[in-house]
Amino acid sequence: MPISRRVLTPVAAAPVILAVVCYIFWSTIIEPDRLKGTKHVLAGAKTIPLPGVGPESLEFDSQGEGPYVGVTDGRILKWRGEELGWVDFAYTSPHRDNCSRNQVVPSCGRPLGLSFHRKTGDLYICDGYFGVMKVGPEGGLAELVVDEAEGRKVMFANQMDIDEEEEVFYFNDSSDKYHFGEVFYVSISGEKVGRVIRYDMKKKEAKVIMDKLHLPNGLALSKDGSFVITCEGGTRILHRIWLKGPKAGTKEVFARVPGAPDNIRRTPTGDFWVALHCKNNVVTRLFLSHSWVGKFFMKTLKMETVVHLMNGGKPHGIILKLSGETGEIIETLEDTEGKTMKYVSEAYEREDGKLWIGSVYWPAVWVLDKSVYEGNN
Questions:
Q1: d(CA 87, CA 337)
Q2: Number of separate domains in the chain
Q3: How far is CA 114 from its chain centroid?
Q4: What is the DSSP string of 142-153?
Q5: Would you give the DSSP letter of residue 42?
Q6: Which UniProt keyword terms apply here (predicted)?
Q7: pLDDT band of 365, cuts 50, 70, 90
Q8: Exposed e or buried b for every residue in 117-141, given b needs 16+ CB within 10 A?
Q9: Which of 39-53, 302-316, 356-370 has the lowest mean pLDDT?
Q10: 312 lies in which domain range?
Q11: pTM here?
Q12: The pLDDT value given to residue 21
């Protein structure tokens, strides 16, 4: 055999061998990280189907009724209990003719984070296309509150929280360049075009209090209103922005989480629940460390393929409970196989001990009793 053939044959075989190895072990290679101390209880949650898709955020009114949820076609639905089920409550756009149950239509809007103003009964809505809106206690067509801050358009309002004592609210503009429909591009592109905005409801003034963020997603105020937390999805970092006290005006890392954080909600005792869209894996770590990888994938792969890779080939459910003081992870609840929950976007703990959970892409919400996970050690 000529020397050239003896050398080239193994070299030529290498890609074939690599391809075979990847094919056999592909699911293991992209598998989501396994976390220590997790409680596998989410699969046992009660499922409440919806006449719509993607209840990304949940909210309850001052009478305890609800939850209210926003869905893909631009509607806000209200849960009236087992007998009456879900009813239409509000919508963010008057253009309803071409709205789709399963696919976002920009002209129909996409309601995301929801927050009630307890004193007025108004429901505030972060819409991923229009900005921050509100609708009165009777529902109907929402009206625009703010769609611009410091001369730049609010493109992707995501989640908000209201300080009723100060008559201000805070919200994330996940990107001042892209709308909700490009959320995965924002997530993996590495572009830091997100910001946190403070809106004075009396003066009707919007002020940016933090910017150059990579997909700021969830946001919540502390129980005493001294700080606000913003979840930076593109870095897995939760930032604490001090609003009052000796540290007012400063910022610090509050927590680092093992996956892509979506919404955050304060518990009745002042801790926080954070929903993770997915846990980290080898693919998401590549996106985080090399933005060009994410941009390359977006140009060469279908969106469905990118989502598949980010979820490790297996959509799953995971939520974390963080200490309201230190940011330490004190509970990790999972449905690792995605038997019940997928694409979890928010966890909302009620005074009665029930945990309500939403999903940005699934046609259901879930309910889990607190006793299930507190008794599971």
A1: 31
A2: 1
A3: 12
A4: -EEEE-EETTEE
A5: G
A6: Glycoprotein, Membrane, Signal, Transmembrane, Transmembrane helix, Vacuole
A7: very high
A8: beeeebbbbbbbbbbbbbbeeebee
A9: 302-316
A10: 3-374
A11: 0.91
A12: 47
